[in-house]
Amino acid sequence: MIGRKLKIARAAAGLSLRDLAARIDNRVTAQAIGKYERDEDMPSSGVLMALARALAVREEYLLSDDEVILESVDFRKAPKASSKEEAIIQAKTMDLLERYIALEEMLNMRSVDWERPRSAPHPVADLRDAEDAARSVREDWGLGNDPIPQLAELLEERGIKILSLDLDDIDGLAAKVRRKDRPDARVIVVKKSTWSERKRFNLAHELGHMVIAPEKNVDEEKAAHRFAGAFLIPADSLRTEVGANRSSISIAELGALKERFGVSMQAIVYRCKDLGIISQKEFARQFQVFTERGWRAAPFEEPGRMEPELEEPRRFERLCYRALTENVIGDARAAELLGISIRELDKRLDILAA
What we know:
Elements: H1 3-12, H2 17-23, H3 30-37, H4 45-55, H5 59-63, E1 68-77, H6 83-106, E2 122-124, H7 127-140, H8 151-157, E3 160-165, E4 170-179, E5 185-191, H9 196-211, E6 212-214, H10 220-232, H11 235-242, H12 251-261, H13 265-274, H14 280-292, H15 315-325, H16 331-338, H17 342-353
Parallel strand pairs: 2-6, 3-5
Antiparallel strand pairs: 1-4, 4-5
């Protein structure tokens, strides 16, 4: 039955039942499509082909019984984000995940399972415990105290699917992924247009949610923030760079630290405050400067901003090119998986071959 897949594809396209009926020139009514989605009826082969074309998916996708279910979905969003946008993002996420997993299967690859750090979950009774959790995760994964150059790549190596989407009032989401006859996986969605220093912090923040277990009296968001800062900017490394106690830090120095650790100046100042390197008064002064210069409001254009593509997840794209090279899929299927036209695919392949 096609009901669930059809509903996901329609939601991902942002279409109502009436919109989809219009897209297929009203070959069937909106009510009929609703019946297909509830598995109360099946479309004819001609209507199925029309629905697939209208939704830019393959007929095989609508007919397949692969099942991916998102659980414990956590959105990072602006207050004005609508429930409709949330539904569209969830649908797009499930659609991309199913394509991702299908591609791994086509290549006879074992889908990388979530490699939860040995020491997780970490109890957090105080925000400082989140600091210890970040240190333990680094130890479990053998990261030492060095800056992490490509965080999205690291997380994908550890079995977390990272997806990048065009988003508006939602910065991303994190969720558990339930799959048929497989262990639960993890997914993090990031906003494609966000500066990479912000993407990196968001990724580390969501990793924090996966590995900490805050007690009831602890603000989980603050704990995940503290984890993210400690994971990206280890205490010992930062103290080596700036010292144990400072009365002030210049914008030029913050810019150099930003380049080293790959995080925003604001995150560095927060970290200095959390570690007692600067006072609360100096922290407030720095943020007043950030506010006056417009760096705390969208589009958050601090000096030395890291372009969005620097922290883009690339594994899915690489697997598509591999499948194409090994003749597992053709040009049309590769373009469909990547969500681009065949012309754009040819352009990318020409650039890579040059």
